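Progress against Task 2.4 (sequence-to-structure conversion) is shown through the following example record, which the project officer requested during the mid-term review.
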Amino acid sequence: MGCGIGLQIAVLLKTGGTSALRLTAAEYQALLARWTQDAQALESARVKLANAHADLAKERERREQAEAEALRAGVRQDTLEQLLAQLRPDRADSSGTNKNPATK
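Structure tokens generated for the chain above:
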């Protein structure tokens, strides 16, 4: 295909088609400039996407750590509530005797 374009250019030059050749060259330059801009825009989008993925990974890690900490806090709360229930005097005991050995 490259030879075909070279041949077309040679024919254009021989037949006085310099204005057509100039137009083709101008179109080529415009396309090349557009391609360069698009390539830069694509690279910029790739960088933004990579940054977004990194931010997402950090946020996911923070969320997982917060969920784990919340779970640990819930377990501590349950344990402390059970301990507190064991240490409270038995209010349901109407005989006046305290069944909780820790409060004797």
